[in-house]
Amino acid sequence: MTSIAAKENDDTELLADDQPQGRLARLARLQALQIVLVLALIIVVFAVLRPTTFLTPFNIRGIVVNTSILAVLGVGMTFVIITGGIDLSIGSVLVFSGVIADKTMLLMGGKGWGTAIVGIVVACLCGLGWGLINGVLIARARVPPLIVTLGTLGMALGFSQIITGGIDLRDAPDVLVNSVGFGNIVGQIPTLSVIALLVVVLGGIVLHRTRFGLYTFAVGSNAEAGRRVGVRVDRHLIKVYALAGLVAGFAGILNLAFFQSTTISGQSNTNLNVIAGVVIGGTSLFGGVGSIFGTVIGLFIPSVLQNGFVILGVQSFWQQVVVGAVLIGAVFVDQARRAAALRGSSLQFPFLSRFGSGSRKVNR
Amino acid sequence: MNRKGAIIAGLLALALGLTACGSSNTPAGGAAGAGPIKLAFVQGVIGDAFYVTMQCGIQEEAAKLGATVTTNGPQKFDPSLQTPVLQSVIASAPSAILIAPTDVSAMQQPVQQAIQQNIKVVLVDTTLKDPSIAASAIASDNLGGGKAAFDAIHQLAPQGGKVLVVSVQPGISTTDDRAKGFQDAVKANPAYQDLGVQYSNNDPQKAAQIVNAALQANPDIVGIFATNLFSAEGSATGIRQAGKQGVVKVVGFDAGPDQIKALQAGTVQALVAQQPALIGRDGVQQAVAALKGQPVTKSIGTGFTVLTQANLNTPEGQAAVYKSSC
């Protein structure tokens, strides 16, 4: 209810409201701060327990590199979840794009940048293709996203296995592996992570600063209201799933460059890991609320936990237990906020209402 | 702020609780060279009897040599999951790492990073494209494993005859070597005729179809070597479908709980067991030698034990069975 009003407000204020008002901006920062705070606490705990090994440049670099590909995937997933949908197929699309790109580059034969660039384009196109299939089936054929992407998850993985016979391909050109996979921009700053950061920043700008992003929030908040104010909801949904596919395809070539292998059997939980990161980062599974920044922080939480637990010598099974708990906590907060917003009882729960208005700020 | 505060506090308490129990099983080791030697073992996949048995061997030997061991591994046998684990292990600054790389090329660079941090690396079970960067590489001699499988068939069906290999899929170095070792041994013995290798794609149903069809074409098959568990189970089903149980002998590979069950049930007549505990013990010895600047053996091949129902319950047989826990 309140969100419809907000949306109409936003439409009229889209161009005029470039300067964030002081109070709202402060609250938006507060919301992001809460996720950052959880991450910071985790880091502090590990840093105190293992002062000489945890916060070393080598380890920080390692955590960042290991989160980079997930962050690229997280950008697409954030858009999809903000529309109230889900995309289970990204891990398989990543594998499929890597396989096709690998085969193409093998056919071309070269080991130089020409081959590598063709590989990158092919991977992105493969991803885009699967994304379009997802989008059209969801928006036009009205099959629920969970089912469509569960289906394409199996199909993309199946095709990858048919093409490869189930054996990983390892034909990434050396330039791609040495510059993108393991190269550094300057000093110890990994190229892979800089590329991921670029994708994240671009995704953030598109989501929070463009009409496309605004429509994404509108579709997720209330598709019918969006339709009435002139958003072409079906077409927008197709675009959003196409975007998710595109970044999954791009992640496929990054994955190939980093592991020099198509990692066919290693991506079966990638989709759930990314969804968990997006949700921990404050994006609502019910749509309409979310941010790319939150997603990145949300993805770092499992990475840091895994890394810290290994350094401490805790059984790695524990990582899943803790990430599961954090995930449930994040959704609990989201639910509580929604319930309060529906009751309109913002005065009785000043904290939750502030949380709500903070997120509405992100909506625009 | 109360509610949010409570949530954060709860999460923090959880994290602290976990780290507390974690710190109890890892003695705080100093830098390499000072204090006890810190070893780290990175498994190919966690919760697998083969790697658990290897871990037991590593822990035993490490305790003997006064070293401490931490063990970690990925949820699945895949480089994209093993790389972050290895990276975290490197960050914990052990003196040496024993690792079963999940991919010959993908793990090369991550292992190289360990060596750049002045950590000694010993490869156990699986290997890398360029294993020369490691202090030592210890693995089962899979060619020898294939030969051991033929010897088992030779014992079970001494009269000779046709033999078939059911393998997983082409391109896996370990199972390819096992099949090759088996075929080489068959060719060396004129009493036996090799019918070649069929691939089950790790699908018991496919293995059953293959074996059923092969028995239609060649009713006089005396033995089948199945290079892994599902191939062995499927082969046994195919033999039952053809009504040949007891006549056609099946030799499987590895001795995890599932394989042992199959042996006890008479589904397979013999198992070729690797020696993961020995691989682990050798690995620790080589790692410690490398740390002390003593001579190391670059490459070590370990042997096999053939298990049948007859020797399964002997002490020697029981020692060859893989463990689910130490």
Describe the structure.
The complex is a heterodimer of chains A (364) and B (326). Chain A is mainly α. Chain A has helices spanning 2-13, 22-49, 57-82, 90-108, 113-139, 145-164, 174-181, 191-209, 211-221, 223-228, 233-259, 270-280, 292-312, 317-343, 350-363. Chain A is globular. In chain B, α3 (79-91) packs parallel to α4 (108-116) and α7 (204-217) crosses α8 (229-241). In chain B, the strands form two sheets. Chain B has a six-stranded parallel β-sheet, with helices on both faces. In chain B, strands 7-6-8-9-10-12 form a six-stranded mixed β-sheet, sandwiched between helices. Chain B is an alpha/beta fold and 326 residues long. The model of chain B is unreliable at 15-33 (pLDDT under 50). Chain B is built from eleven helices and twelve strands. Chains A and B meet through α2, α3, α13 and α14 of A and α1 and α3 of B.
